User: Which sequence fits this backbone?
């Protein structure tokens, strides 16, 4: 896949995942986390069936030579999905999304240690700078005084930030495992067994109390799965042909993350006296 296709695929998948995250935040107000995970995974099978039936590759979705590899990726992905949705439910969407940009940085380290890919010193330097940026994003949630004074709301946000960071780690692990699987497995089988693993994990939470959602919420749950499945197909295809693990599309996410860090740093650096005299609404 050339540079233009790789960047295009990344942009499309990012847009889809952001839309999905916004809808997850909406349904999480009334629907248990496990139920959201189930719909995300079960309804994701629909685009998989349609796409690969159209390409006459439907049989390839269930044929595998590495069932244990899919099982390992499923375990990692289940953990990542639960953690990611838990973070979205507890944090402002912009913060949850920004913290998730740590995943490409962690992926670089995982690729070097687990896949043996060569990472030059300038890339390690960029990773180090990126992690400093992650600390800047996490800093408001690590303030002990704010945590103790903020009560339950502050504790919830801190838990959400921890979930977002752990989700980034598991997402990086999932990408590494995907890179291993694509050596012998088809994209359709990777997406199918991912969806199956997460659907079973979500279904296992049924005894802990699911709810009967209203029609708009039910429609949102189904849409979450369809969008997530489509985005996952794009992501799996995007990783297949890359010779280098550090694709331009991953670095693009880091650039967006850096812009977010800059805006937050500027906001935090404004003196309180200046904030106090700044009008909350335009004067007539």
Assistant:
């Amino acid at each position: 896949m050339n540079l233009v296709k790789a960047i295009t695929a990344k942009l499309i998948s990012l847009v889809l995942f952001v839309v999905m995250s916004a809808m997850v935040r909406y349904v999480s107000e009334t629907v248990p986390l496990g139920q959201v995970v189930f719909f995300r995974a079960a309804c994701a099978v629909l685009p998989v069936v349609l796409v690969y039936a159209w390409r006459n590759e439907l049989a390839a979705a269930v044929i595998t030579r590495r069932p244990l590899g899919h099982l390992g990726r499923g375990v990692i992905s289940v953990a990542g999905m639960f953690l990611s949705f838990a973070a979205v439910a507890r944090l402002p969407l912009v913060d949850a999304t920004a913290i998730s940009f740590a995943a490409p940085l962690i992926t670089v380290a995982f690729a070097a240690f687990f896949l043996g890919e060569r990472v030059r010193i300038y890339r390690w330097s960029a990773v180090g700078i990126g992690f400093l940026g992650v600390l800047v994003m996490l800093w408001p949630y690590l303030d002990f005084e704010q945590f103790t004074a903020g009560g339950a709301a502050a504790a919830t946000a801190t838990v959400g930030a921890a979930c977002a960071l752990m989700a980034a780690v598991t997402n990086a692990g999932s990408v590494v495992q995907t890179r291993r699987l694509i050596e012998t497995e088809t994209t359709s089988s990777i997406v199918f067994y991912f969806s199956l693993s997460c659907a079973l994990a979500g279904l296992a939470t049924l005894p802990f109390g699911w709810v009967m959602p209203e029609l708009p919420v039910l429609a949102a749950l189904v849409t979450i799965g369809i969008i997530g499945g489509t985005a996952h197909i794009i992501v799996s295809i995007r990783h297949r042909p890359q010779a280098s693990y550090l694709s331009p599309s991953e670095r693009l996410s880091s650039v967006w993350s850096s812009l977010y860090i800059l805006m937050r740093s500027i906001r935090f650096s404004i003196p309180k006296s200046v904030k106090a005299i700044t009008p909350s609404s335009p004067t007539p």
Q: What stands out?
A: The radius of gyration is 20 Å. DSSP finds twelve helices and no strands in the chain.
